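Problem 12. The chain below contains 502 residues. Write out its predicted structure in token notation.
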Amino acid sequence: MLLEMHCHTAEFSACSSVAACDLVRRVYAKGLQGIVFTDHHYLWSEEALRQVRRAAEVPEHFLILSGQEVDSAECGDVLVYGATRVFPPRTSLVEIREEFPAAALVWAHPYRKGRRPSAEALRNQLLDGIEIFNSNHTVLENSRALRDWHQQRFTAIGGTDTHGGSYAGLYPTIFDHPVRHIFDLAAEIRHGRCRPFLKEIPRSGANSLVTEVTIGTKGIDEVRERLIIKEISSSHKWRSEERAHQIMALLVRHGFGDGAYRVPRPIDEDTGTMTLIEQGLRAKSLFDKLLTSDVADGRDYLERSATWLAKMHNCHLRITAPDEFLAKEEIRLAKYLERFTEISHRHLRKVSDLIHALREAERRVVRSYADLMVQGHGDFHPKNIFVGQDSQENRSTLFVAAIDFESSLVLPRAFDVGCFLAQFRNQFFAHPEIMQKYPEQIFLDSYLRGAGNVEPDFLRQVELFRARTNMSIAAYLIKVGMGESEDLWRVIVEAEQALAHV
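Solution.
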């Protein structure tokens, strides 16, 4: 059973601008099964609640109850469910508990304004639960509360703390068993048979556990809070992920936080537990979108992806050390070659020659254009680009976002372009109709329009880094046991052909 547990009405809370009848209608429209009014130091009578039901014209099975929000002496605002009288401000929790032992007391918005409750405070025996999701919490505060809930395992609820109509029912609570009146509700809370309504999907990665968290219900507007929680188990991986986190934070400050071109907003990082939290995206990868979209939409997505990259490059950021690019390339190219050497692959000689040529050509580019290198993405391809729409009814809210900045370095701009073109061909090679509908020139032309002036030999550089990415793909195929596949030979030949244009 899904209930809104914390809301204020214009009738009896001076801080609210939404009438009880409107609140009920909006929460019902969200798909919830009930609502609990929690006006400050006020209890609605049963007759008044019946009048609200009649005015709102909701079915009889939709639950409308009343609790109250009390300013307690010990910990500030507390939601009280199941007491039959109104308490004045600064009432002690001890007094409430002694007079109404069967009532449920829930600490309201304890993380608000940057507070971080101690484990002892969260386990206060006078409290029956903690409100971990609240609209008066920031996203950071909600995410911290979620982590504390998982670590401390106390009883938790969600409560929207509605004071206006637009966000009613945003953070509901789900009850394991049906509730018929306020005393049922109090008993369920006291027995821990409820929890905030959210979806958590764990996705294991290399040296990390990534969890996607979606909070609340879709409702009509489909607005829900989304988080990505990354728990890192390797110190090496942590350094890489933390750096990516900082790069995204800087991009947000340069205009990539919202709008048509964005990155997931970094929310929190905890060095002690090697945990990172970032904004989740309601979007699909460019790869998936191109497989299912009509040609006009697909072309738009591809052009926007190229524009995203040009905008990043045009920021002219230099976050990492400029000399890091060649140093890392030496290591990467050596690893690619090592994959072939370890199994004495029959194309080892050809690959060795290609790697040598790539290494020399990259050095020449860096020597010639060191001053023009910028912070790039480093792994820009259709599965690291996401296309979404904030409002499904409004095309103008469409956005493109890039993820996975672990490989971000100060690099030649052509690196990201060549990487994309090589990966685009490789990822869609089994879908020739996609490559036919979307020639790579669409991406390249859009990038050049957005980037403005580029180096005289920019297109030759693109071919160089296309070849370099193909060698990365070839090494991966060796790693996954596809060393004798036709795909491997194809990417080697395509790398050789690309280098011929350098």
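Discussion. The chain has 16 helices and 21 strands. Students who got a different answer should revisit the alignment rule from Section 12.3.
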